[in-house]
Amino acid sequence: MRLQRGSALHGQADRRSEITRGAGEGAGRRVFPRLWVAALLALLTFLVIYPVFMLLLGALTDTNPVVDGIRLSLSHLSIANFLTVLANPNVGEALLNTLIACGGGTAVAVAIGLLFSWIVVRTNTPFKGFIAAASILPLFAPPLVAGVAWAILGSPKTGLINTMFKWIGWDLHVDLYSMWGLVFVFGIYYAPYVYMFTSSALRNMDPSLEEAAEISGASAFATLFTVTFPLIMPAIVSGMLLSFIVMLGIYGIPAVLGAPSNLNVLTTYIFKLTNWSPPLYNTAAAVAILLMVVTGLLVYLQQKVLSGRSYTTVAGKAFRPRSLNLGPWRWLTFALGVIYLLVVVVLPLLALIVAAFRKFMFIRDVASLFDMRQYSLMHFRSIFDNPLTLKSIYNAIEVGIITAVVGGALAFAIGYTIHRTQVTGRRAIDLISTLPVAIPGLVVGVAYLWAWIGVPGGLYGTIWILALAFIARFMPDTVKALSTSFMQIHRELEEAAWVCGRGMLSTIGTIVLPLARPGVLAAMTLLFVLAIRELGSSLFLYTSNTMVMSVLLLDYYEGGNVGKTAAFSLVQMVLLGVLIGGANWLSRGAAQRNVTRT
Amino acid sequence: MTATLEVTELRKQFAIGRPAIDGVSFMVPAGEIVVLLGPSGCGKTTTLRCVAGLEHPTGGEISISGRVVSSPGRGILVPPRSRDLGMVFQSYAVWPHMTVRQNVVYPLKHRPIGRAEANRMVEEALALVGLSEYADRPVVALSGGQMQRVALARSIVYRPQLLLLDEPLSNLDAKLRLRLRDDLRVILKQTGMTALYVTHDQAEAVVLGDRIGVMRDGRLLQMDKPDTIYNRPADLFVANFTGATNELAGTLVACNGGYGVVDFGDGRQGEVALLHALGPDDKVRVALRPENIAIGRPDGANTFAAKVLDRRYQGTQTAYSIELFGKRLEAIELGTAARHQVGVEAPVSLPRECLWAYRDRGPLSHD
C-alpha cells in the first residue's frame, strides 16, 4: 500500500518535470523524440522482428522466401508444412526427450539449489563463503566444455569413472551417454539458477516467521516444510522455470552426451536437420518455432509467478540472518559443499587435463594413469598448428568486442528511453526488446540464417551477422542489467542538470553516464563473455572465415579426437578466465574511482 | 497452568563488544505481567529471547515453573518448542501463506489435541482477540492491528504457561497502538497468564505492567510497581528515562531521615528527598519532573524566584522554559489556559518529595 502510494507520487513528479520541460521546447525539438523512437523501432525490427518473421514464414512454406522471393513464399503459405512437421514421429520423440531431460534436470537442480541456499543462508556450516562461491561457479562453465568433460569421465567404455571403478573392484558401471547422464549433467550445472533465486528469498525473509513456528512447538524439520519452503515458493518456482528455460535452449551438453546413443532433443534435432544434404531448412524452421513456443509459454509462466504476490519482500528492512546450529552435522553439510565442488569443477577439470596432455586416451589401469611417459604437449601443438585455431580465437574476441560495444550502447539507449523518458512508443520498444527472452540461442541462429542466407552481398558470411545475432539474443539481459545501473541514480540529479540549463543529451553525457559507469562496464563485460562462449546461434551463422572458438571446439569433438577437444577446452577456459578476471578488474577499478570521487 | 519465571544472574556475551546482558536477575510470579523497559540496545529484547530459547545465554540460569530451561553452566538448554511458551513478535510474524484460522491452529497441530477440541480452542482464542468473523480470511488481507491480534491469538491458543511479548505494538500507528494496548491488558488479565513484555515506550509500560523493570547497558536498574518507578526512581537514569528530565546540581549540607538539605550554590538551599544513602558534603544531582514544577504558586519551604524564558502552548497543557539558579528547566502546567507571560519573574515551588537527590557521578551519565 505504502509502496503504491510512493510510486504514484513518483509518477506525478515525472509528469510534472515532463510538462516543465515540454513548455520550453520549440517545434524542432518536438520532432526529435519521434525520430528517435522511429530509429529505435526500425533497429529493433531489423534485429528481432525481421528474422523471427522470416523464420515463421519458412516454417509455414516449403520454399525459401529469401532465395525464391517473398511473393512465391507467400503464395505457398499454408499451415500444412508446419502440421506435417509436427506429425513427424521424430519431432515428437525429440520433444518428449527434451521435456524429460529438462524436467529431470530441473528436479535435480531444484534439489541441489534449495539445499545449498538453505546451507549457506540458514545454517552455521563452516566456510559458508566458500560454499556460496561454489554454488554459482558452474554458471561460468560453457555447456559444451562441461559436456566434453563429463563425456571423458562418464562414457560407458573408456570413461575415467568406469576405469576407476574397475580398479577399485567395484561392480559398478556408469553410462552418461543416456537420458540419466543428460539429466544428471543438466541438473548439476543449472542448479545455480535455483540457488540464486532461493538464497536471496531466504535472506530477505523475516526470521521471526520461523521463530514463531518453533515457539509454537514445530520441530526444525517441520518448520522448514510448513513455513520456510511454502514462504519462498514463488522464488523456488521461478528459479525452477528459469533453469528449465535455459536447459531447453542448450545445445552443447545434449550434443555431446546424446549423440553416441542417438538421443535427440529439440536443439540437436534442429541442427541435424540443417546438416543433412539437402538441408531441411523448412523443417528446421518449424521445429525451431515449436521450441520457441514451448520456451515462450514457460517465460510467460515465470513472469506471472514473479509478478504474483511475493511473500518475502515485506519491507526494505535488513534482517539479522538466523543461523541454525547444526552441531556436528555442520561438517556433513560442509562435506556436501565440497562434494558439489568436486563434481562440478574439480573432476571435470582433472578429466580435461588428463585427456589434453595424454597421448592416447586408452587407459588400461590406474598405474598407467600416473605414467608420465604417456603425457605430452602433442595435442596443444596440433591444435595450434591448425591456422583455424588462432583465427577462431581472434574472431571470437572480435565478435565479443563488437557485441559488447554496439549491444551495450543500444541497450543503454533502449533502457534510458523506456525508463527515463515519456516518449510515445516506448512501450513498443520495451516489448520488442524483451521478446528475445523467449527465443533460445539456437532459434535465433536459425532465424538469422533464414533472414540473411540468400541476400546477395548481405550480412551472411561476415562477422557482423554473428555479432547482430548475439546483440539480439542478449538484448533483454543487457537492457535489464544496464537499467538497474542508472535507475539507482536519483532522478533529481538529472533534473538538477536540466535546471542548470543542460539539454537531455548533455545531461546523459555529463551526469548519467559518469555515475552509471561501473554498472555499464559490468553489463558490457557480461555481454562480452556471453558472446564469446555462445554456441547455439553461432552454429548456423559461421563460415570458414568467421569460425569462432565455440564452434571450432564442437568441430574438434565431432572429428572424434578427444585429446584435441580437451586441449582446446582448456585453452578456452583459461582464455575465458583471463578475460573475465581482466574485465572484472577493469570495472572494479572504475567503481572504486567512482567511490573516491563522490 | 500459569507459571513463575525466574531469571538468575543471566549473562549474554556476543563475540565482540560488551556483554548484551550483564547479570540480570528477576522473578515473575504466576499471573503477573512484568514489563522490561529501556532504550534500544539495553538488552531487554535479548533477555526476552533468552527466556524464549531463541538466544543462548552464556551464563546464569532461567527456570520456568521451577524447571531449569537454560543453564549454560550445567549444560542445560531446552529448545524453544519444549518450553511451552507463547511469543508475540514485533513484526507480527503471522504466516502470510495461511488464513487466520490456519495461523492460529498451527501450534495445536504440533500438540496431541483432537480436531474438535482444537477447533473449539481456536474459536475461543479468536473470540478473545475479537477476530471471530475473520477466521477464514487470508492474513495478508488484514490490517496491521488485526495481524497483531492474530499473532496474539496464535500465541495464547494453546494456553502456554508463559507469554512473551517483544514490542508488539511498536509497528502500529499511534491511535491503534493506544487501543490495542488497553485491550492487551484486559486480554492478558482475562487469561490469567504470566507475561513478560518488552518495550521502549514508558506509557505502554505503565499501563500494561504489574511491575516494570528498567534496563540499561545489559543491567536491570530497578524493578518495581509502576508508581514506585515513577515516584521513587532508583537512580538518575531511571528518573530521566521515565520523564524526570530536569536536573539540578548541588551539595548536600544536611541529612534528616528520608530528606536532606541541598545547597544549589550562592547559598540557595532547598529540601530534597534522599532515595539512597548520602552523607553531608556529598555532591548530588537532583532530578525533577516538569509536571511537578508549580509556577506562580508560592507554597511551602522550597519556593524560589524564577524567570519565564519561553512558552509553548500545547492545548491541554502549556510547556514553559524557566530559568532557576542560572539553569534552564522545563515546566509543564496542565489546563487549557496559558497563564504566564514570557519574561516575567514568578515564584516557583518545588515540593520536597518531588526533588530526588542522587550521588553525582560526573558528567551526565545517561547521554
Counted by DSSP, the helix tally of chain B is 8
The assigned structural class of chain A equals: mainly alpha
Instruction: Please give the number of β-strands of chain B.
Output: 21
The geometry of chain A reads as globular
Oligomeric grouping of the chains: heterodimer
Largest interface: A-B, 21 and 25 residues
How many whole angstroms does the radius of gyration of chain A measure? 26 Å
Helical content of chain A (DSSP H or I, runs of 4+): over 70%
Biggest sheet of chain B, strands in spatial order?
Answer: 7-8-9-3-10-11
| Cα end-to-end separation of chain A | 34 Å
Strand/helix succession of chain B: EEEHEEEEHHHEHEHEEHHEEEEEEEEEE
The helix fraction of chain B, in percent, is: 10-25%
Our measurement of the CA-to-CA distance between the termini of chain B, rounded to an integer number of angstroms, reads 43 Å
What is the annotated CATH architecture of the largest domain in chain B? 3-Layer(aba) Sandwich
Q: What do we call the CATH homologous superfamily of the largest domain in chain B? A: P-loop containing nucleotide triphosphate hydrolases
CATH topology of the largest domain in chain A: MetI-like fold
- Beta percentage of chain B is 25-35%
Radius of gyration of chain B: 24 Å
Largest sheet of chain A: none
Summarize the helix and strand pattern of chain A as letters.
HHHHHHHHHHHHHHHHHHHHHHHHHH
Output the CATH topology of the largest domain in chain B: Rossmann fold
Organism (chain A): Bradyrhizobium macuxiense
Pfam family, one (chain A): BPD_transp_1
Family (chain A): Belongs to the binding-protein-dependent transport system permease family.
Main location (chain A): membrane
